[in-house]
UniProtKB/TrEMBL annotation:
SUPFAM superfamilies: P-loop containing nucleoside triphosphate hydrolases (SSF52540). The keyword Nucleotide-binding applies. The gene is guk1b. It comes from the Eukaryota. It comes from Betta splendens. This is Guanylate kinase. Monomer. Interacts with RD3. The keyword Cytoplasm applies. Its EC number is 2.7.4.8.
Amino acid sequence: MSGPRPVVLSGPSGVGKSTLMKRLMKDYEGVFGFSVSHTTRNPRPGEEDGKDYHFTTKEAMQEGIDNNEFIENAEFSGNMYGTSKAAIEDVQAKNLICILDVDIQGVKRIKETDLNPIYIFIQPPSMEILEKRLRDRQTETEENIQKRLEAARVDMELSKEPGVFDIVIVNDDIERAYEELKDILIEEITKVQETKS
Ligand SMILES: Nc1ncnc2c1ncn2[C@@H]1O[C@H](COP(=O)(O)OP(=O)(O)OP(=O)(O)O)[C@@H](O)[C@H]1O
Ligand SMILES: Nc1nc2c(ncn2[C@@H]2O[C@H](COP(=O)(O)O)[C@@H](O)[C@H]2O)c(=O)[nH]1
């Protein structure tokens, strides 16, 4: 796969990945493109099909997986998620930096491909703060919050394995975390900006 190096953002649910990513895409319009994943979970209020996710059924998603249309897929908190080859190709065809927001299972699967992204793990300051962010977001049932916190504990352990992530950013203060993210990506950002000027 060609073009600028993609970016994989991973980290526990509720840590702030979407918040950081949306800001990056707003501040650097025409530089980044989001890899729109497929999921079988229901849309949250305000989420748009084809923009936030391709919302689909288990049957349709399984068919796509069986037809080798996905570079990775995983089950998370009782739902299926996956990155289609088309989602990445759509972004790369425009010569944009492709951003993928995937869980740790997705990270492991992507490592088996030739995508060669920059792997970034977003870490919460503490499990207590993560739980508060998840609850305050008011998008999850209690059962889902518990499942997501359990997955977060596993993520936190796996993220400590050497060589899995290129960089770990602690999202305590959003401004500081965002500056750190920008610093890591500035070289790729500049390359894309230069090709457009
Ligand atoms: N640094 C921060 N300080 C306080 N609140 C934050 C911070 N970063 C994000 N948040 C808030 O935490 C909540 C979760 O953030 P967000 O939805 O971006 O997480 P996420 O990692 O994308 O979650 P998911 O993986 O479930 O989609 C949101 O309500 C967001 O406004
Ligand atoms: N392996 C993959 N994980 C994905 C993908 N898209 C999102 N995710 C991860 O799922 C959880 C939950 O997301 P939510 O939107 O329901 O809160 C989160 O950790 C995402 O990073 C994907 O295509 N593949």
